[in-house]
Design a protein that fits this description.
Elements: H1 6-20, E1 22-30, E2 34-35, E3 40-41, E4 45-53, E5 57-58, H2 61-66, E6 80-85, E7 98-102, E8 105-116, E9 121-129
């Protein structure tokens, strides 16, 4: 059941990210499958999506002091955190298949956290590393 705050907070988070954030490329690579009959591995499939994110920033001192973040991924020097609004997202970020291209630099997704406003995801927190 959708909570009372779900629609309001999802709309607000999308408006704020769209207004104050930036558009980056979310690149998804699906590895080609091996065909046992032919002995050939199919070519990887790459697909790009536009993704609006908050300006990336280093993790806070509290995050670093706790030595972990989403999914217990260790924070390393140079790691960044950013957020993407869930409403209207074309492709849910995936740390296994996706990278972000921000200002021409490729960043790997170490972990993807979900922030709920009730029963629905309002935002995704992305832990990034070069």
């Amino acid at each position: 059941m959708v909570g009372a705050l779900d629609s309001v907070l999802r709309n607000v988070s999308k408006q704020l990210v769209d207004q104050f954030g930036k558009t980056v490329v979310q690149r998804r690579t699906i590895k080609g499958a091996y065909d046992e009959l032919t002995g050939v591995t199919a070519a990887d499939k790459v697909r790009d999506f536009n993704l609006n994110i908050t300006p990336p920033s280093p993790f806070s001192a509290a995050d670093r002091a706790s030595s972990h973040t989403m999914k217990d991924a260790m924070i390393e020097a140079g790691d960044l955190s950013t957020f993407a609004a869930a409403k209207g997202i074309r492709s849910i970020p995936d740390e296994v298949t996706d990278v972000l291209i921000i200002d021409g630099e490729t960043w790997t997704m170490v972990a993807v956290g979900k922030i709920y406003s009730g029963s629905l995801v309002t935002m995704y927190q992305l832990h990034l590393r070069r």
